[in-house]
Design brief:
The structure is a homotetramer of 235-residue chains. The first copy, chain A, has 235 residues and is mostly helical. Chain A is built from eleven helices and no strands. The structure holds a DNA duplex (21 and 21 nucleotides).
Chain lengths: 235, 235, 235, 235
DNA sequence: GATGAATGAGAATTCATTCAT
DNA sequence: TATGAATGAATTCTCATTCAT
């Protein structure tokens, strides 16, 4: 590196300065680098935030890079410095959404002791996530219900973590004699994921029907599903 | 139109035929009307058939009215005499798909005696329908998992019939002491629909994952889901 | 067809009118069809003319569909009703250019009797074509000097005709003992084509050099090339 | 720049070295200047090498400054310190290509004694150059067949040298009574250049046609052209 | 009823060049 | 010198819908 080279012709006694020198050099370089990184991160985030905002206004599919650029006060080309394609923007948000969901699961589980309560907690967390982060929920299910070829390894990794989390709860439940041992944890994990996403999706799509039908409320449906699931897996 | 214009220059003596013409007017008018209706129906169906064919070839979303018109040997404008919009074509096919699904449910149930077997039959029919009519299944779930503002009353009606069918099975099961009475049939009906669609969707989206994971097969997942459901509702 | 059907219930005596009727019908239909075809042709030509004009102003490569649409007072989409792509516009003009060149060859040859004079005529026609139809010449050589994958069969056909024309002149010359028989007509035909295009291209590219160099004129170069060629092939 | 800045804070006693430094100043300044020039040259060359490499991979027209910068491990802006524009990079490479071609001519001629053999040698060298340095050949002909306003004096100079070389061979041939004296050497030189480039271009563009046509091979065409040319100019 | 030409707003992506640091 | 983020015009192609005939 440039600096090293220069240092090599510095007279011996000058090297006394090196410690201080390096400290401030290191700091200033580091700070400069950090500033640049931060700036990049800030713009990166700005694009995501604007995209999110626009999607919240107009829906997942109406996202349009012209609008994003305009709203983010950037040139359209600039977007492409941060994301290779529109798809990548969606992907980044979907990744974020999945991570949020995983975090929500972990959070909701942490206070539970029995395996079945934990699984109920996962369903509940899913529901709460859906209720409080509609766009993010949509992003999760968008990639979950459509066959995108564009799922990145990172995105798959989060799903894997979610799956593993559920599988480990199930196994724990089987060891504790809470859950029937005849059920393969992998199979249960995936069908639970399907059922849960399906029920949430239904709440979303049939929101109007549900709100007008006296016997139906979101809570009742969730509760019914949760109980049914719990009974179904119990020993 | 050209023909009308020509008729207008028909010579006087041609009007002699009018009396006879009038005599059979009622019938002929009816017949004419029927013919017209039939003709309309024929074209209407032709458009749907062509659309279906093209969607089967290229997928749900690749449908393109230029191609439909060309394939149906009509002008593009003609399509708009039979359907207000592209959306309406999709809607009509989705309606057909729902009707087919309802029929499949009824068919599969007919041989079953116990309520729980009937409900299992519904799940099975759903799966079989998914396996054998991919496009129609897609059409059902496309409208089921996305919030289309374009669901027509007719489409809702079929869903109502499906719901009613399931509700009545559940009620029958409760009377027979097969199914726990604490469950509200309406609630169960809707959550069953959600779960089932969700699990099917998962099979579709995660097909690759499932096929590469040794512990997973479509059958196992379906079976696991079905059993879990059956146990969950049993008395 | 509609018209046939109606005719079928026309009373006998009305059929007397048919001849006249058909005549005018036929005429009017034909005329309508012709009008439509003509209209299409007019627009098709308009697009080509506008493209040609713009290329003449800004060069072959600056052609831009926005400008074409604006200049032709059409919507951009309309262009795509007449041409599948920008490439096709270029191709159509290049085809026209090749046809014009072939015609120029034939025209210039027609008055010549000896084979060598005919070949000289081809070179001369090439030069005259270049001088009087610069854009078209560019279009010919654009496709001739760049490796387009987009040469259509039609375009290749014209080149084939040009080649055949030259081959047949050479063969004729060999029969007449004008041209050495040791030369393969196919080989000569193609190298003649290469040389000629090359010399023209040079005139074009080095126009400035030529005009400033006292010993050089286009005519001298062409003449020198022509003679050299003639001597080179003579018996 | 960083280095300058640091030097400026060097402690006083470091200046003791300055006398010595001054003694050799003239030299060192020269050396420094040379080093700077060399450094510049190194980067300049690096850019050209990378550009060449990328063009060899993807073709003449696919060159893209983003890629160049990345591959050369420079910032994109840095490219503009060494070249005013992308065009200038191409120009520099085209100049190199022309120089290589001139060198190839000289090399191939050196062993020949008769003027006609030398001219044949030029054609042969052209063909060999085309066969073995495709990119460079493309660069030569790209500037030779398209009217770039960007031909620099340097580039023109090389062409002048090529022309002079050929002119002098022709004159030599005329003195030796090998070549007809009626031909103006300047005219012949330029038409020979045109023909030769044209035939090579044809080999390139019609490569497929040639390879599929039984009567045609590159060698036959070149040979036919060469002979025809030789006969055409012979006394 | 039927036609099909015309529309024109989109939409995604590229890239040579500039310029503040 | 060197950087590299930012620009933004440029460009091709699509397609649901309309409307004059």
């Amino acid at each position: 590196m440039i600096i090293e080279d220069q240092v090599s012709w510095l007279p011996m006694f000058f090297k006394l300065f090196r410690p201080t020198f390096y400290l401030c050099e290191e700091n200033s370089l580091l700070m400069a680098k950090m500033k640049i990184k931060e700036k990049k991160q800030i713009k990166y985030n700005a694009i995501l935030e604007v995209s999110e905002k626009l999607m919240q206004l107009n829906g997942l599919h109406a996202l349009n890079l012209d609008d994003v650029a305009k709203e983010a006060k950037m040139a359209k080309g600039t977007l492409y410095l941060y994301f290779k394609s529109k798809e990548e923007i969606l992907g980044a948000l979907a990744l974020k959404a999945r991570k949020m969901l995983l975090a929500a699961f972990k959070e909701n589980i942490s206070s539970k002791t029995s395996a079945i309560d934990k699984l109920k907690g996962v369903i509940e967390a899913n529901y709460l996530f859906y209720k409080s982060n509609r766009l993010y929920y949509d992003l999760v299910s968008f990639y979950e219900i459509s066959e995108r070829e564009t799922e990145t390894p990172q995105m798959q990794e989060v799903i894997r973590q979610i799956t593993n989390l559920i599988v480990s709860i199930i196994e724990e439940g089987q060891e504790n004699e809470e859950i029937r041992k005849s059920i393969d944890p992998n199979v249960l994990s995936i069908s639970m994921w399907g059922m849960t996403v399906g029920v949430m999706q239904l709440l979303k799509v049939k929101a109007e029907l549900i709100s007008t039908h006296q016997a139906l409320t979101e809570q009742k449906i969730i509760q019914n599903y949760t109980e049914l699931f719990a009974i179904g897996i119990k020993k």
